[in-house]
Prior knowledge:
Elements lengths: L6 H10 L3 E5 L3 H13 L4 E6 H6 L3 H14 L6 E8 L1 H10 L3 E4 L6 H18 L2 E6 L4 E3 L2 E3 L6 H8 L5 E4 L17 H10 L5 E3 L7 H9 L2 E6 L1 H16 L11 H4 L1 H18 L6
Parallel strand pairs: 1-2, 1-10, 2-3, 3-4, 4-5, 5-8, 8-9, 9-10
Antiparallel strand pairs: 6-7
Helix pairs in contact: 2-4, 2-12, 7-8, 10-12
Amino acid sequence: MGLVSAKPMLDKAYREGYAVGAFNINNLEWTKAILLAAQEVSSPVILGVSEGAAKYMTGYKVVTEMVKAMIESLNITVPVALHLDHGSYEGALKAIEAGFSSIMFDGSHYPIEENIKLTKEMVERTRKLGISLEAEVGAIGGEEDGVIGNGEVADPKECKLINDLGVDFLAAGIGNIHGKYPANWAGLNFEVLNEINKVTGDTPLVLHGGTGIPADMIKKAISMGVSKINVNTECQLVFADATRKYIEAGKDLAGKGFDPRKLLAPGTEAIKQVVKEKMELFGSFNKA
Length: 288
Ligand code: 13P
C-alpha cells in the first residue's frame, strides 16, 4: 500500500487504547528488520528518521525510495508511515519535498511564540499534502543525534496552545529521556501527563525515549493518552550485543563468516525480536 500518514493509525490507537511503535532506521538492515517484524505480528508501524540518519543514508530522497521499494519487494501490507524525527524547519521542508508521509517539527527549543508561529506554518503545509504532523512542547531529556534536552517537563498551557493549532499528535516532555535512563531517574510524571491529556482533547500523545521505561509505566502512559512510543537506543544496543557475540565466538573467522550478510544477520534478528516485544507491550499486535 505504499507509505501512509500516521494520523489514522494514531487516532485509532488513541480511541482503542494502545500505542503504535516508532522505530528509528539508520540503514538497510534496520529497515528490513522493523518492516518484517511489523508484518509478522500484523501491526502498523512508524519508521523514524532523524536528520543525522537521513544524512548518513545519503539524503531524504534515498530514504524514501529505499523504504517504498522495500515495502513493495517484501510484500509488506501493514500500514507504514515514514516519519521525520525531531525535524528542524529546514529538515521538515526537505523531508516533505522527498515524499515522507509524516513529519515531526520540533520547535521545543524556541521560545513558545516562535514555536507557535513555525508549527502553525507546518500545519498548513502538511495538511494540504495529507502528511501527518507531530509537534513538541518541552524538550525531551538526553541526547539524540546532537539534539540535546535536559529532561524537561512540559507546561500543559503551552501544550494546549500548540495542540489548538491543529497538530495531529503531540510530544510533550514528562521527564522522559533519550538513551539509557540514569539509576536515580524519577520516572514519568503522570500528574503532568494527566493535565496535558485533559487540555489536548482527542489528540494522540507521543512518548519519546521509549528505551528502558518499565512496562508498568508504559502501560499507564498508554491508558492516559499516549498512542505513539519512540524506541531507538534499545535496537542499537541489541544489535551491538548480538554482533559482538558473533565476533567473540570467532564466527567471522570460520568459512565465509566475514561476509557482511552473515556478520550482520544476528544483529538484524535481534532488532526484529525487540521490535516484536515492544509491539506486544504497546498492544498493537493484529491492529494493522
Ligand atoms: P530512545 O533512544 O531512548 O529509545 O528514544 C528514541 C526516541 O525518542 C526517538 O526520537
